[in-house]
Known about the structure:
The structure is a single chain. By secondary structure, the protein is mainly alpha-helical. It has twelve helices and no strands. It has helices at 15-23, 32-45, 50-55, 57-63, 69-73, 77-84, 93-109, 116-120, 136-140, 146-157, 165-174, 188-197. Helix 2 runs antiparallel to helix 7, helix 2 packs across helix 11 and helix 10 packs across helix 11. The radius of gyration is 17 Å and the shape is globular.
Amino acid sequence: xxxxxxxxxxxxxxxxxxAYHDHEWGFPVTDDxxxxxxxxxxxxxxxxxxxTILTKREGFRAAFAQFEVAAVARFTERDVxxxxxxxxxVRHRGKIEAAINNARRAQELLQEFPSLAAYFWRFEPAxxxxxxxxxxxxxRTMTTSPEAIALSKDLKKRGxxxxxxxxxxxxxxxxxxxNDHMEGCIRRGxxxxxxxxxxxxx
Length: 202
């Protein structure tokens, strides 16, 4: 492998991972639907691999009304039973009920903030709090952060479920609140440029 095609080591396991790494992971997201989808899918991932969730993502989108907050918030017990029979998703009652609960909690949050993006981006860490160099060794030790712990704690206080600190940090990595592409990765620079160009929602 040459320097021109170096990628973060975790994405080598699957073409699905490579596409996700190259086009999504670590790039800043301010779209509320995508943010809600990701926090839900991170909850579904708990105890599983991300590849399991990624390969079922279209199934999840179909099952959960494209993760439109208002639509998911209207789901009833009948929808829970429907989802428990849907082989296109992870059929775990607690996680399904958590996603519906979290849609309702998101509606409450939107009464306080202009958007989910405005809420989540409040937890972006200061640049000078990040490691000076993101080597594979450094990244292996980074499973959470003070900001992720704060996000998890605040979400739990607001009644959200399946949003522990590790889940919150994985969400922040994926949605570009932190850039954990390792030094030398071909997507680190583009992700940094996308963040520099971003107007952070307030």
